[in-house]
Amino acid sequence: MKKIFSGIQPSGIVTFGNYLGAMKHFVELQQDYDCMFCIVDQHAITVPQDPATLREQKRKLAALYMAVGIDPKQSTIFVQSEVPAHAQLSWIMQCISYIGELERMTQFKDKSEGKSGVSAALLTYPPLMAADILLYGTDIVPVGEDQRQHLELTRTLAERFNSQYADIFIIPEAKILGRRIMSLQDPEKKMSKSDANTKAFISMLDDEKTMTKKIKSAVTDSDQDVRFDEENKPAISNLLQIYSLLGDEEISAIEAKYEGKGYGAFKTDLAELAVTVLNPIQKRFYDIYESDEVDNVLDAGSDKANEQVQPLLQKAEEAMGLQRH
Ligand code: AQP
């Protein structure tokens, strides 16, 4: 069975962007692949996090993975920092990365722009991501469009290591899961769980009232046509995309349904659809979150992951001369 690795940062509560762009697809993929779903807390601390909140968000993310349908009997759910090999291999990956190629990453540029105290780890985020993926002999990495560039770098680093030291890493393929879901307040910006403007995203744990309010106050384009046109009507196109993914309905069918009806009717129905989809997920979430299941699953997940990564980490260290014998 082919191997999949994918991670989500516990840097906030998972949004519709993370869900529709990544998590929703994981549920189907777990039927056909051996999946490792990681809560990448070491990535999250590349920008400042409140420690208690970060801890809580990790547990919430684990419960959300399960609530959306990841079955811990089929897939492995675990926390990155509980598997030290990620940081160990990350150092090796940093040693073979060039500063220039890391500075070219758009995520680094976006997250460091205009900030004075940018952490070195924000720059070395991609070598850690490469380590996450390569450690498991991953064949396929399902991610949103926003992560394509990091995946390309992972492949470059794996090829570089294989040719300079030892041919031990599988070169992973990216499986791009769909278009980016954009901010509800600025359709030029992607929807992000750490956006300071909470109106910009819908969190998977927003209550009915909050979710409805956010959808109704989402920016729209100047006319009233519910029509998909990313270039000229990016805001309504984004909402159409969300509607289509949530309801598993073709965009053309949605356009036909709202012809001549304007943005108001469309937004009211989109809010209702979002509430209908999220209600059962949230119910499952609270049942899981309040039980021992989260810790039991994470304990078992890190045991399994720690066991799996040792042989490859050892080979990588030996190849570079780090092991004494
Ligand atoms: N807006 C998006 N549209 C589609 N897919 C998205 N993903 C993230 N945002 C969107 C996908 O979600 C998965 C997990 O992402 P992540 O948590 O590892 O990091 P991220 O891409 O930086 O996500 P956020 O929400 O923007 O987090 P913050 O605010 O902390 O930076 C990935 O597969 C990603 O492609």
Write the layout of secondary structure elements.
Elements: E1 3-8, H1 16-29, E2 34-39, H2 41-44, H3 51-68, E3 76-79, H4 85-95, H5 99-103, H6 106-112, H7 120-123, H8 125-134, E4 140-143, H9 148-164, E5 173-176, H10 208-216, H11 234-247, H12 251-257, H13 262-289, H14 293-320
Helix pairs in contact: 3-13, 4-8, 4-14, 8-9, 10-13, 11-13
Adenosine-5'-tetraphosphate binds next to β1 and α1.
Short description:
This protein is mostly helical. The protein contains 14 helices and five strands.
Task: Explain what this protein looks like in three dimensions.
This protein has helices at residues 16-29, 41-44, 51-68, 85-95, 99-103, 106-112, 120-123, 125-134, 148-164, 208-216, 234-247, 251-257, 262-289, 293-320, and strands spanning 3-8, 34-39, 76-79, 140-143, 173-176. Strand 1 (3-8), helix 1 and strand 2 form a beta-alpha-beta unit. It has 325 residues and is mainly alpha-helical. The radius of gyration is 21 Å and the shape is globular. The protein has a 3-stranded parallel sheet with strand order 1-2-3. Strands 4-5 form a two-stranded parallel sheet. It is 54% helix and 7% strand. The protein starts with a strand and ends in a 5-residue tail after the last helix. It folds into 2 domains: 3-180 and 292-320, Rossmann fold; 208-286, Orthogonal Bundle (Tyrosyl-Transfer RNA Synthetase), CATH 1.10.240. Adenosine-5'-tetraphosphate is lined by residues 7-9, 11-12, 15, 17-18, 21-22, 143-144, 146-147, 180-181, 190-194.
